[in-house]
Amino acid sequence: MLFYMLRRLGLAMLIVVIAVSLLFGMIHAVPGDPLSIVLGPRATPEMRADLAARLGLEKPFVVQLGAFFLNVLRGDLGADVFSNRSVATIFFSQLPFTASLIFMAIGWSAAIGIPLGCFSAIHRNSWIDKFTGIFSVGAITIPSFVVALYSLLIFAVALKWLPAIGAGQEGDIISRLRHLILPSLAVGLGWVGYLARLVRASMLEVLGENHIRTARAFGLPERTIVFHYALRLAILPTVALLGVGIGHMLSGAVFAEIVFARPGVGKLIFDSVITRNYPVVMGSVIMTTLIFVICTTAADLISAWLDPRIRENL
Amino acid sequence: MPNIPASTTAAPTPWQSLINHLGRDPMALLGIILVVIMVGSAILAPWIAPHDPNKINVRYRLKPPSADHWLGTDQLGRDVLSRVIMGSRIALQVALISIAVAGSCGLLLGMLAGYGPRWLDSVLIVLFDTVRSFPTIMFALAVVTLMGPSLNTVILVVIVTSIPVYGRIVRSQTQALRNHEFILAERAMGAGAMRVLGLHMLSNVIGPLLIIASMDIPVVVTIEAGLSFLGLGVRPPTASWGAILNDGYAFIRNTPWLVIAGGVPLILTTLGFTFLGEALRDVFDPKLRREA
């Protein structure tokens, strides 16, 4: 396990280093330099020289890359082109909004998806199972921003049950939660489908195994067999999936935050793209990538800890 | 087995088994119907669109659906139905171009990783994992900041982010095949790497790749629509479902038909291709079911 852990952590670090270098290299590889991107075509030479010095662009590429890594390691992601505030400060001020959205989405989709998957596995080929199958495919396929738009249209504009925009009053838990309902519906709906499908498939596999048959032979009640013995094993693949899921949800959160005009990391990056504030875009994309890599690595390590067979193939 | 007629002695051809499957699977049939409608309207778009999709008529702006404009008009008085029909072209165009390019690159790199030396395999796998460590939309936003929004940027983003998906599948197929007897026999008879890969591996790897590619169409269509919805995909006045949703979002309080008209074809298309892809997978390669 220690060997696997070290290799997996080494791989994760290698991936982060390459990913940051790729993003950094992209700035230099694209036609048009970052100065014109930020300042636009009518910039004076003095403005260009000033910004170039501030961003350290006059040094050779390798020196810049090295300096950039040192800065990232120290937690310095550069500064906002317009306000000169630290990108790290801006990013971490927005992160709680996105984190609460994603946790809410994971929570409600697991609360519905996992029981749905169990239920269809137990009642295999019943009409509920068939409905769950179709519902899962539909939920996975429908783009999350369309779910966001339609739920905005139905529940906020037409029925006026829930607030349409913003994140709610600061310090008012009820208002915060009410503002989370629709965005987390949009982010999590696909995950109900994924979880239901995955739990159903792994549940069917587990229910066919010998120790479950033995438990049946001992006359244990079906409820105990399913929830005490089978579910514990059938839930394992979802752990690995959740790691990757965080990445998908980060993408979904971009749309949910824009549609519902919620503060958050996605909205921050989008607004910075529109204003061509590229240090903020780059810094935030690096941070979200880092979060994503940490999540997938953690999920892999947890799966390997729970299931020794995984440790053998890396 | 009641489904097999008594007169058939030979194993059913792939087409027969597909048709048999469709008879038993109404969702697959629905998928085919939706795909045919979508592809048909994309091909015939200039002839079946009732109006010019880009003709501006400010006096008829934001009109609700009527006999002349079945889906109403947008904020510039353009006919929404015509724009929805033309939008299917953009969606299909992006999907076909990017999946063809990404599939070919993934095929090449995947076979190299699976058949080539071990160091090359390790390098490619780490590269694949690196590209997949960016959340797709975040990566797209980073690229758009640097290259500016355009349809080509969308296609580039989709290609770069899907190569690893195809590459990994081709790699695992190639690895599974490389020690099969027929490959070993071929190598024992002196066949070079080019012949083994180009002739024998390719014919065995391409099937699963095509199935994965068909299941990837809805994903690509969603990414294009998503970026165009953010205003970072197609440039105005080009009609795209995402662009229609973007227009609709600005006027969602008073003119809901714009959002409805942009979203429904998107939902139906992604559902159609998904149901079709699942049916193809079940018929031609049930083994993939576990890996997917």
Q: What oligomeric state do the depicted chains represent? A: heterodimer
What string gives the helices and strands of chain A in order? HHHHHHHHHHHHHH
The chain pair with the largest interface is: A-B, 54 and 43 residues
Name the shape of chain A in a single word: globular
**Mean of residue pLDDT of chain B?**
82
- The number of E-state strands of chain A comes to 0
Distance between the termini of chain B: 29 Å
**Could you say which structural class the secondary elements and strand pairing of chain A correspond to?**
mainly alpha
CATH architecture of chain B: Orthogonal Bundle
Instruction: Please give the number of β-strands of chain B.
Output: 0
Summarize the structure in words.
The complex is a heterodimer of chains A (314) and B (292). Chain A is mostly helical and 314 residues long. The N and C termini of chain A lie close together (12 Å). Chain B has one domain: MetI-like fold. In chain B, helix 3 runs parallel beside helix 10, helix 6 runs antiparallel to helix 8 and helix 8 packs antiparallel against helix 10. The longest helix of chain B is centred in the C-terminal third of the chain and has 37 residues. The chains are: A mainly alpha (314), B mainly alpha (292). At the A-B interface, helix 1, helix 6, helix 7, helix 11 and helix 12 of A face helix 4, helix 5, helix 8, helix 9 and helix 10 of B.
Name a few traits of the molecule.
heterodimer, A: 314 residues, mainly alpha, 14 helices, 0% strand, globular, B: 292 residues, MetI-like fold, 11 helices
Summarize the helices and strands and which ones pair or pack.
The complex is a heterodimer of chains A (314) and B (292).
Chain A: H1 2-29, H2 34-39, H3 45-55, H4 61-73, H5 87-122, H6 127-141, H7 144-158, H8 173-207, H9 210-217, H10 222-234, H11 236-259, H12 265-274, H13 278-306, H14 309-312
Helix pairs in contact in A: 1-13, 5-6, 5-8, 5-11, 5-13, 6-8, 7-8, 7-11, 8-10, 8-11, 11-12, 11-13, 12-13
Chain B: H1 14-24, H2 26-48, H3 80-115, H4 118-132, H5 136-147, H6 151-177, H7 181-188, H8 193-229, H9 241-250, H10 257-284, H11 288-291
